[in-house]
Hints:
The protein is an alpha/beta fold. Helices cover 26% and strands 23% of the residues. It has 16 helices and 29 strands. Strands 13, 14, 15, 16, 17, 18 and 29 form a 7-stranded mixed beta sheet that branches. The chain has a 5-stranded parallel beta sheet with strand order 20-27-21-22-23, with helices on one face. It has a 4-stranded antiparallel beta sheet with strand order 1-8-3-6. A hairpin with a 2-residue loop joins strand 4 and strand 5. Mean pLDDT is 87; it is low at 558-578. Bound molecules: flavin-adenine dinucleotide (FAD). The site of flavin-adenine dinucleotide (FAD) has 40 residues, from helix 10, helix 13 and helix 16.
Amino acid sequence: MVTTEEIGGVGLFASLDPTQREQLSRAAADVSLVAGEYAAHEREEPALFAVLEGRIEPVRLVDGIERVLGERQPGDVFGEVPIVLGTVFPVGFRAAEASRVMRIEAPDYHALAAVVPDVAKEVGRLAAHRMGGSRGLQGLAAEPPPPRAIVVGHRWDASCSELRRFLDRNQVTFKWFTPDTPDAAERWGGSLPPEADLPAIRVVDGKTVIRPRLRRVAELLGLGTEPLAAEYDVVVVGAGPAGLAAAVYGASEGLKTIVVEREAPGGQAGASARIENYLGFPSGVSGYELASRALQQARRLGAEILVTRSILRLDTATRQLHLDGGDILRARTIILACGVAWRSLAIDGFDRLAGKGISYGAARSEARNAHGLDIHIVGAGNSAGQAAMFFSTHARSVTILCRGDRLDKSMSRYLVDQIATRPNIRTRVRTVVAAVHGDASLEAIDVHNSGTGKTTRLESGGLFIFIGADAETSWLPPDIALDHDGFVLTGSDMRATGRWRLDRDPYLLETSVPGIFACGDVRYGPVKRVAAAVGEGSMAIAFVHQYLRDAGGPDGKPRAEPAAEGSVRQRPVAALGD
Ligand SMILES: Cc1cc2nc3c(=O)[nH]c(=O)nc-3n(C[C@H](O)[C@H](O)[C@H](O)COP(=O)(O)OP(=O)(O)OC[C@H]3O[C@@H](n4cnc5c(N)ncnc54)[C@H](O)[C@@H]3O)c2cc1C
């Protein structure tokens, strides 16, 4: 408990009378921190703190890298900005050494401030001081985060687009310019690499790589690519919303957890311009931000996250997962959260122009390529609608190509209404893409109207395809039961196939192999949404605990359980898309 003497030692509270100090002593929490532990995390709810012992440093994450912004000594307070403005903490506060702080909850602070106006005045003065000036929050906000990488490459070079998309998806700030930019050499900091070596990337410490493989880029930027251990309690395949939720719950509940992600965290949600229906974000949240927050949270809680690594093979008998590059991970339990992959359009010229004006899905990094152009979106689901809204603030015009006769048959009402308010978005119904044209990049498309039977050529600065997705399960062994569209069967759907061998019932998210679970879009089920994926990812961890407890032998390891044999193909799934 914080004593009245200690309270008196904090300058802010020096004017309190003995009764007020006594009251504060009863209300304040006495928090001991080991070095590295946080008193308050970035974005935490408001509270006021005073340092009693040790040293506390404000820390902000910029591009996943921690930046220390100062320090607080015994007698100093922190949290004055959120408590005055009623906002979340703009930066985190971490113990630089073993420390002790007192924490006053917002209602207790306001009760005190109401009876001792001097405290309120002083906290207000401190908050104003922290917000203003070049070293305050105002200065921090004005300071652009230094780019972690510089990229030079051509606009319509597919590998340059892939590189930019990869950096963006991994939340790495970078500057990109084309080699014909007038001050290109100055921006690059020397003569540019020869044309044949583009794209090239230079990372913050000056290392430069030409025509880089994404794995190499990840290594240079310190994104995890190699597993730290050989065996884990849980190996999660895929870092979309389901995989990240499993990582957060797994790591926070003491399981040794690793997530292996083929590309970058966020999955499909990372490509979503604005998710309007995710609980707790009244004005919507971009998939990028949701993924970035989830990634930070999973890492903070101790989950290991590998990027640019794919699981190529799963041996259910030994519980070994084979990664590309030859590494093998042993898992006590496995969570399949590998989602779905975009369906491609089988039209002549598509593959040649993919990444050169034609994209599956939409990444934030494409926005610059769409500036002032007329672009086209194929599809009429919510993902197509969100992309249309996103590009309408960058492109001159956005045309949605809808195969059916109405958008609202497949798109949520709120999106149809939002689209109606944007004068530069138009919809062509009963229309499909018949051909694409362009040499170095996409220049025009032919669209066919099934109502009139006419084919029209339209100039196009970008074509974005949103026509649904298929389960990512071709790599799974046959003893994991799938429906005949390739989605993983779990729980009672799986049991109905007759492939379950144990006396106990399978858990809701358990596959035909005990201890292997599936969640999110890859799982057989009609709901394909972020909230469902997140919910299932967290539920999967609850089943992992039950499985480990029930199956645990004396050494706590699961006993060998018979696996289902042969692949199962069941009834088709009506996947709703998003
Ligand atoms: C453009 C767009 C907009 C959307 N908008 C909304 C919306 O507004 N609201 C909503 O609720 N839902 C929306 N959705 C749907 C939502 O994003 C998905 O339901 C959700 O992302 C599913 O999460 P998941 O984790 O199951 O799978 P995914 O998001 O598909 O993630 C799976 C991950 O696994 C990785 N992976 C696959 N195979 C392997 C392997 N073998 N090894 C390693 N990694 C692998 C993939 O690279 C991927 O990152 C949208 C989807 C899109 C595409």
